[in-house]
Specification:
Layout lengths: L1 E6 L3 H12 L5 E3 L13 E2 L9 E2 H14 L3 E3 L5 E3 L5 E5 L2 E10 L3 E3 L15 E2 L2 H4 L7 E5 L3 H10 L5 E6 L8 H9 L3 E5 L1 E7 L6 E6 L5 E5 L2 E4 L3 E3 L29 E3 L11 H30 L11
Parallel strand pairs: 1-2, 1-8, 2-5, 8-19, 10-17, 11-12, 11-17, 12-13
Antiparallel strand pairs: 3-4, 6-7, 7-8, 9-18, 14-15, 15-16
Length: 322
């Protein structure tokens, strides 16, 4: 029986592990075979507090992990394959092995959607990114391309005009999916141009991004477009498939919570990008991990108090008066 199981090992999960371990809960962390969250695919991180010169994403996550282990967190690099949050104790499976717990923190994050085209994987962190806030500042006075047609793509394109000399938005359809206000704002910006009915077919570059092969989705014709940076803004997929039927989720699969920490399952808390559909930053995820750990600690203290009260021996009846 574990006091607390943390599922996930990004900034939310490992921050929760740090706080829970310092509260002597000895959390068991299922980090996943590919541990560390989205920062493991990021090169230099310049917007995380405490690192004025920046820090490599994997290096930052290794520091998170070492800190959690220092205080007593137990970390296993395995994937959770099944859960049962409908009864007590809560149960979590990793393959054929089942673990029982009094409480669980779900911090499995969300995975950015990639294009899946040749050259993309090789140039991730070398000009190809899914986070303008994280990486935009590396491309001052550079030519930037944004792929996407929704509000997120418009927001990223506008944000990137702070750095790039020019931003081109590529969209595979002839109309944007973005809200009118966001689309109008992007269209009106002097540093943004649009190319419709265009899809990226290949990403090219030796050690860094140099150009894109783009395909006309109507005619099929291809051409080459010079670019220093490619930001892919076609959405994220929350890593919640394993919680189907156990946790309430929205239409896109994100865990629902009335307050950003409690879920519909008693004793199960949520933190990070698996819930957060807006910010998706390491620092906000870490803050949510802190909240989840503190709420889990409070929940366990209340359970302990209730258990102690139930187990207390009833007082002897007072002696009859004579």
């Amino acid at each position: 029986m574990e006091r607390l199981i943390v599922i996930g090992s990004g900034p939310a999960g490992l921050t929760a592990a740090v706080y829970a371990a310092r509260a002597n809960l000895a959390p068991l962390v299922f980090a996943g075979y590919q541990y560390g969250g989205q920062l493991m695919f990021t090169t230099e991180v310049e917007n995380y507090p405490g690192f004025p010169s920046g820090v490599l994403g994997p290096e930052l996550m290794e520091s998170f992990r070492a800190q959690a282990q220092r205080f007593g967190a137990k970390i296993q690099n395995v994937d959770v394959t099944q859960v049962d949050f409908t009864q007590r104790p809560l149960r979590v499976w990793t393959g054929q092995i089942v673990f029982e717990a009094e409480s669980v923190i779900v911090a499995t994050g969300a995975s950015a959607r990639w294009l899946g085209v040749p050259g993309e994987a090789a140039l991730r962190g070398r000009g190809v990114s899914t986070c303008a806030t994280c990486d935009g500042a590396f491309f001052k006075d550079k030519t930037i391309v944004v792929v996407g047609g929704g509000d997120s793509a418009m927001e990223e394109a506008i944000f990137l005009t702070r750095f790039g000399s020019h931003v081109t938005v590529l969209h595979r359809r002839d109309t944007l999916r973005a809200s009118k206000i966001m689309a109008d704002r992007a269209r009106a910006h002097p540093k943004i141009t649009f190319a419709f009915n265009v899809a990226v077919a290949e990403v090219r570059g030796d050690h860094a991004l140099q150009s894109l092969v783009v395909r006309d989705t109507v005619t099929g014709a291809t051409s080459e477009l010079a670019a220093d940076a490619l930001f892919i803004a076609i959405g994220h997929d929350p890593n919640t498939a394993v919680f189907e039927g156990q946790l309430d989720r929205d239409a896109h699969g994100y865990v629902l919570s009335p307050d950003g920490v409690h879920t519909n399952a008693t004793g199960v808390f949520v933190a990070g990008d698996v819930y957060d559909i807006r910010y998706k930053q390491a620092v906000t995820a870490a803050g949510m991990g802190c909240r989840a750990a503190l709420e889990a600690e409070r929940y366990l203290e209340e359970r302990d108090a209730e258990r102690a009260l139930a187990e207390r021996t009833p007082a002897e009846p007072a002696a009859a008066s004579r």
